[in-house]
Amino acid sequence: MSRILVFQHVAAEPLGTLDPLIRRRGHRIRFVNFDRDPGAAPNLERYRGLIVLGGPMNVEDRAARPHLTTELRAIESMLEQGKPVLGICLGAQLLAHVLGAPVRKHHVPEIGWYPLHSTDAGRTDPVLAPLAGSAPVFQWHRYSFEIPHGAHHLARTQTCEQQAFRWGDNAYGFQFHLEMDVPLIERWLANPAYRAELAELGHDTSEAAIRALTAQHIAGMQQRADAVFNNFLDLIGRPQRRYTLPSREWV
């Protein structure tokens, strides 16, 4: 039975549909919630993979949130050990930053449902292939990453070119949220901080529009998400290929 380490930043952004899938696969999950325990320093040697979830903070907030530096170092260590890493939204931005890529405020926020388009590399990728072609995915982000040097660019949207990448054999960054289900989307729409962000951004996607599109797209996304996540979980426990990372420009 393999142990998977999960970095969580706020209660509103859990593993979602990925949680029961991991448990059905027989893996044990260890959550580190940095909102509750910002000083946590988990022993990485005990774990066979790392998943870093989303959150309302950003890579540039490290001075106010020192746990982000803890996370960057943990991601770096897991990559050097050749262990699978999956970053979702903020997690993808942290992964990209460790790999030397800049993370910046995006020119237009993406909130709600957007068609995701696979690149040629994404159509044949061992993990992301179930999203081949064009598929609607759920988004909620104001920042975005550049594709790290040497990584494979896997997906884009019309408003954000850098949506997914693979670095090496088993490190993935997804800007979008495949882990969502209807209760979790409703939880975000009811969250005062998330509602305030939506209002502050002046985004032209209303709550009613998000709910209507969710009814149309959630079942299809969940089916494809299960296939993608199962592909990623297939990497857990495989023989590890160790990597040499770029210089620590993020320190």
From TrEMBL:
Entry protein name: Glutamine amidotransferase class-I
GO MF annotations, alphabetized: transferase activity
Pfam families noted in UniProt: GATase (PF00117)
Listed GO CC annotations: cytosol
Keywords for the protein's UniProt record, in alphabetical order: Glutamine amidotransferase, Transferase
